[in-house]
What we know:
The protein is α/β, with parallel strands linked by helices. It has 21 helices and 15 strands. The strands form 4 sheets. A 6-stranded mixed β-sheet has the order 4-8-9-3-10-11, sandwiched between helices. It has a 4-stranded parallel β-sheet with strand order 13-12-14-15, sandwiched between helices.
Amino acid sequence: MSLDQSTRSITLPRRGAPDEQIVTNANLLFVGANGSGKTRLGTWLEISSPDHNRVFRISAQKSLAMPDTTTPMAIDLAERNLIFGNPTDVVNKRHYRWQNKPATAFLNDYDKLMVFLFSDETEENAKFKILSRESNVKVDPPLTKLDKVKQVWERVLPHRELVIGGLRIQTRVRGDSSKIYNSSEMSDGERVMFYLIGQCLAAPKDAIIVIDEPELHLHKSVQAPLWAEVERMRPDCMFVYLTHDVDFAVAQEGAQRVWLKSFDGESWDWDLIENKDDLPDELLMEVLGSRKPVVFVEGVNGSHDVSLYREIFAGFLVIPRGSCDQVIQAVRALRANSQLHHLQVYGLIDRDRRTPPEIAALQTDNIYTLEVAEVENLFCTQEILALVSTRLARDTATDFNQVVTQVFKQLKTELDTQVSLRVVAEVKFKLNCFNASARGVSALSDALQQLTQSIDITSLYAQFDGEFQTVIDATDYRGLLRLYNRKSLPTQIGNALGLKTGELVELVVRLARTDARMDVVTAIKPYLGAFASFVV
Length: 536
């Protein structure tokens, strides 16, 4: 197959099928969960693949011990020493570079990289000296590999500059010659950036550069700029990134993404990832990078409710999606994706003011509804309050009776508001049932009239008021939690237990992180609705 200059090819193994060639004009980004065989795939590409002679691999396990001084050697020997691990033997790369353990060996070649860069510097400067002597016109000095490393490094870290001496490299704050330090005193991030830039410059022409965990030791703010600069520096090469870092994967917008599903010790199951407009990149990458079933929940990272979910749903990847609509959209989008149909994906949302038909319809899409009006009410269940009272060495019965008295008193003062909100929610639901197939002014008018005539506000108000009155008359605390939408409820109840604002939810989350976790899980499971069957 003849390929134009912008097109590259790479051969990948596929489980149960012959090796497959991918032809692309983009770099490759492999994503997958821990244990999906990313490092082993990189090893296979370098050692066993049909393209192995073109592969230059940078391991995730590497030394960052940067020497202060360097002694150059003949450039051809320095290059072979770096690429093959030995200056004279280019056959036994597995032995010399990888100590016969190419997948797990700790790569310790920073000194060899420095020798190569300074050897290139010496070689190019020697050629320049000869040309300058022999030429009658001015000869421009060469742009050596070390010069290029300095340029890229300083573009990514503009507040620092490299000071290149005869046989050593130092660093200083830009513009301040008084604050200079040796290379061995650089931060991990500074040293790994120098290492990665230098290694990619050292790769042979038209190489396939495989980078295992390209985000390692790098601050997230410099990851994308660094690799963008490196790729521009080596347009002749194909870059193959192996990562499970969501942020790094999302930042590689132009790469062809490949999902490593699994590795059985000998072969890989993988798929090219299709771009889907209804699936945000960060969401897709996070799901593909996990081995756990996924449950989308309302809320945001850092909130107490999401923290609680992550503790009690230890067997799941818990992903907050903000609103209930975003949870529903995410679950449906993933379940509708033919590539992801085998994934276990669920949604868990607040009951709010949903009707039984709504709840049943959502469950057919693996979207489950809590048995409480708001997730905050999970912190207020009788079972949870008993755990808290016991932990605080208080009388559980007295505390619960005081909570019940206070909460029902509060509900009565805002009963009209709660009932009205239930009516509003039901009206909105019914309006969503408008006959969308109606056509023409007359048909549309009739459809709207029929719909509005079917909405009886008086009847709805009486229905929902009756539900609340039944709960109030029976002092049904569990029924109250199912109907009462009040996000401040944990604060009110915490006050009844002598706790300050926010302390109740904080205490429950802390308990879930201790040996009392199973007690918390047991206390909350009855309020998880049908989703409780998946929680262990």
